[in-house]
Amino acid sequence: MIPELRRRAYLSAMQVANWLPRVALPFAAPSRPELLEPLEEPVIEAQPQAITPSERPTIVETPRPRVEVPRPKAQERNLRPVVSDEEQTPTTAVKSAAEPAPRFALQLLRAGHCAVLVELPTGEPLQGRDPAYLLLKDLLRAAGLPDSPHMIGQPVRWPLLARGNMNQGPSAALEFVQSFVAARLEEQEPITCLWLVGLPAIRFAGEADAGDYNRELQIEGIGSAWAVPGLELLMDEPARKADVWQAMRRVSKRWMSQPE
Fold it and tell me: Measured between alpha carbons, how far is 46 from 23 in angstroms, rounded to an integer?
């Protein structure tokens, strides 16, 4: 028989880790009890077999139950609310906020018992030899007022800011101009009439438009006003002066009756 050490060398060379002899070997080491337990049979998983077309299961489709959706009758369809174009458009506040800022320059003057809010055609204060200023002096003389008016405050130039997120649309311009004029007139002696010369002055101080030329207006917080076409418009269209003279004769009663 092979000695134990040589036997183990042979088994290691053959990569045999455990073995059991069929009979008791002389000079062999005693066997370990766990090696004498019967080995569990390995579980071999069955491989799925290919399914031939003839063996494939038949899939039976069951019809889906129909769900009846209630449909309105003809009368009910006619009762549906109709959305108008006005309801589909954005609100007035959103529109006004999106409108671009108007651009104008105004100067507030005083001549006797009247104040004059005049549009500055060039954006700069009126000068003594400017044709527009000479025409304004003619209007004041024809109205029986001093023809050398003096300025009240600094010119109002809109928009106020070149940049920034502040709302400078028409509604903001209207609020600012009316507040400015009302504040400046409170600092003066009583004014019987405010001349609004030029469309920006009429629009943003009197809440009116070109259709109100030569008419009298009532402005809340300010009082009586008279809408006059712009100085440049009167120079470009002299025929308008006749309507201004006629309206002046009617309106001038407001300041002509005041004591000096």
Answer: 37
In whole angstroms, give the CA distance from residue 26 to residue 75.
110
pTM of the predicted protein model: 0.63
Phi, psi of 46 (to 5 degrees): -75, 130
Segment holding 227, helix H or strand E = strand 223-228
Each residue's pLDDT tens digit, 67-123: 555 555 544 444 444 445 545 454 444 444 457 899 999 999 999 999 999 999 889
Distance separating alpha carbons of residues 73 and 214, to the nearest angstrom: 60
Distance CA 83, CA 79 (A): 12
Beta bridge partners of 193: 114
Q: For residue 167, how many other CB atoms are within 10 A of its CB?
A: 14
Q: How far is CA 142 from the centre of its chain?
A: 49
The sign of the torsion formed by the CA atoms of 182, 186, 187, 191 equals positive
Which class in CATH covers the domain with range 101-256?
alpha beta
Residues of the chain with CATH 3.40.470.10: 101-256
- The contacts of residue 10 (CB under 8 Å, 6+ apart) are 2
